[in-house]
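Quarterly update from the structural biology core.
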Amino acid sequence: MAGDRSYDGVFLTGVRTTGIFCRPTCPARKPRPENVEFFRSSQEALAAGYRACLRCHPMDMPGAPRPGPDTDAMLALVAEAESQPERRWRERDLIARGLNPDRVRRWFVAQHGMSFHAWQRARRLGRALSQLRAGSGVLPAALDAGFDSMSGFSDALRQLVGSSPARARGTTIVHLQRLPTPLGPLLAGATDEGVLLLEFTDRRMLERQLKTLHRRLNCAFVPGSSAPLAQLAAELEAYFAGEPVSFRVPLLLPGSDFQREVWAQLQTIPRGATASYAEVARAIGRPAAVRAVARANGDNRIAILVPCHRVIGSDGQLTGYGGGLWRKRWLLELEGHAGLVPLTQQPRTACRRSTWRPSRARPTP
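Predicted structure, tokenized:
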């Protein structure tokens, strides 16, 4: 009834008086509670004879751009802007294409968290930084990225990376991309070498994770794409379709030696199995470090691929997960876990105990 976005993906509502099913966040007038029934998926709602709402589009993945003339036009604009990274688009250029600048701004804020002008400015800065790292002179890099003056380029660069163009040569470029999934959008970040961030966009720790990466890598975050991000998107699509995917995209895991040891061990837990924090601690040869293992598990910055969702309490309970326990349960069910009950009714031995046994060999970080 409150339209709480944190429940988007947990359930769908079917309204008996209209025959329509909706997301919890649907802006339509709220029905009377006695006329509502709940479904776990759109397939269940369709099988019960309901049709999809035309306002909240419950058949679409959360976070995905809604189909329609606006979206088609915006995606075409993005493609053209990507093909001409040095071009500076102004409002008159958008109007000439038949686009309303206000609608463009709202669409970009909804999809990318920034206006179109901020998006293209960040893309130009990312291009300039890449050229500086490759050894280009400051002036050629600024001009090639579409900046009219050195002062404007310097000011923009200081806002992005906190340093002058001369000191920015050592800055690592991390391209950010939002990936829609059935559980809501994921924010993915990657360099040209590999993926180093994959978090649900509503995770409270996301801002802290970005700050940690910035401090460790001296990096700048810019919207864009890279070969690892394209590979990641394809592998995640197969994973959420229920295919037994072996993730091959290269990962970058900056952290302490202990954290990397824990994260490497997490990747040995097979699909369909779980492990306790104590089992992971024993596997890395530190049986007394259960709490430290739990902290390292929570500090994991790459969801799903470094499967921290497969770690549960020693009593079999689903314990904390940065993306929310409902997502943890959903992922385990997707991977073949049986016998999970609703979280509000979860007994102390709700999870089927795993037959996985940790390797005694300590993994190489």
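The chain has 13 helices and ten strands.
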